[in-house]
Amino acid sequence: MNTKTIKVGIMSLSEYKTRTIAIAKGEYKPKENEPKVWFESIKSMAQILSSENQELLKTILRNNPKSLKELEELTGRAKSNLSRTLKTLERYGIVELHKENNALVAEVKATHFQVEFGVNAA
Predict the structure, then answer these.
(1) The whole model's pTM is what?
(2) Cβ of 108: how many Cβ atoms within 10 Å?
(3) Residue 5 in 3-state DSSP?
(4) How many CA atoms within 13 Å lie on the side-chain side of 12?
(5) Phi, psi (5° rounding) for residue 73?
(6) pLDDT tens for residues 73-108?
(7) At 106, which helix (H) or strand (E)?
């Protein structure tokens, strides 16, 4: 199995907005090794990468379900909850959802996470 590591960063919302504006204005160019995915806090990252969601990713990797219905049966999670969780994971680049034979299929895109953050005195 291919493993893909994504680098995630932790940055306050105000710092993130300032950084994004600087990028848009051409005042700052992100470095190649900088995180592409950002969380506002360790707490928000922990919610996305919770034990429950890690188990969901493992279930997808182990069973390669061909539909959300099959994944629902494997996990025992309600379809609405599962769909919402997968869409959130997709926003962060952790899974990819695509149609296959008229069914929505989840594919795990990231299996390892490298976290980068620091504390700045303002």
Answers:
(1) 0.83
(2) 20
(3) strand
(4) 8
(5) -65, -40
(6) 999 998 889 999 999 999 999 999 999 989 999 999
(7) strand 103-108
